[in-house]
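User: Hi! I'm a student and our assignment asks us to look at how structure tokens line up with a sequence. Could you show me two examples?

Assistant: Happy to help. In each example below, the sequence comes first and the structure tokens follow. Example one:
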Amino acid sequence: NIQLVEQPIPAWDLDGLKQVRQSVKIPVMADEALFSPADALKIIKSEAADYLNIKLMKAGGILSSLKIAYLGETAGLPCMVGCMMESNLSITAGAHLHASQSNIIFADLDTSFFLKTDPVIGGIKINKGIVTLPEQSGIGAEVDPSWFKKLKKAF
């Protein structure tokens, strides 16, 4: 009952990723090999993956992430929005990206739970796996101004 395998080999080895994809019945997701729309195009052209894992911080933001999603959709590759160790600010941006694109069918937006302190006010709420987007303008999240004062004192 394995749904997919995420980047089972080193990021630089697209030929190897393609070989894995062709050798197993489990779908393969490109992750570490994917930073930019240009990377997405290489992955698509080499037929190295069944899914693309878009990480806003790696891609350079929302616009580049949208381009990756569009390339995936054009090529028939569903996408996932993933994250790295990020605050709820960028996690919320990822959730908005996910909600805006029908080709993005998976999300992994949990890393802000692992932060000792998250300086973000607002943002998404996750309850029993259900994500609720904020209703405020913009993305509905902002950095707490008092956090900057605390950070300044630390240095």
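Example two works the same way, sequence first and then tokens:
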Amino acid sequence: QVAELEQTRSGLHATREAAQSDLSSAKAELAALNSEKNALERAMARSDGDRAIDHITVKPGYERAFAAALGDDVNAAIGGETGRRWNRSTVIPKPDTGSLLDYVEAPSELAARLSAIFVVEADDGRALALGERLVTLDGKLRRWDGFVAEDDGATTAEQLVRANRLAALADMVPGAEAAVASREAALADIEQRIDEAQTEYREALSRQQSAEGELRQALRDADRAEDALTR
């Protein structure tokens, strides 16, 4: 029994080492996520005012297309009475036709503009009606009046990418925290099992030593009895 308990104890120690390694990895991952999240939050601290970009969420992968389509207009305010601003348009937004509106969550003040901007992987040369624009996923713009631009709005695109990454991190952190808690609980359980195995091993070893002592005493008594019988 002592040998079996020793084997069990050794196995638990190996399991503990693996659990400690898993816990360290989970803590490192959580720390990395929190570090990146905090850095992005500091970098994206909003300035004073009520800019349109502060109310916009763009589907990942469409950041450059959106930035090229709106350019500096994303920094205009939503509503208000003075300055550069977005007010509700009197133009009715076009129906769903694969426009940028399908990939953006934005205030209703931008709906008419977004509905007139088509998004494609590569410019297919389609004809554009008055007021329409076409943007590609890599940030190229062609306007209805023949104006063409490339890589405009790089700063805006980077800000949108950061916003999407920050949102992703916010979703990832709770899972990473749960993973750390789960591994801590698993390690605590293993520690308890090791303590129990240690106690059981010591008790079994004590019983074995006691039995061996009794056996030695019995052998000595037998030797004396044999000597006495011989005499």
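Here is something you could point out in your write-up. The chain has a mean pLDDT of 86.
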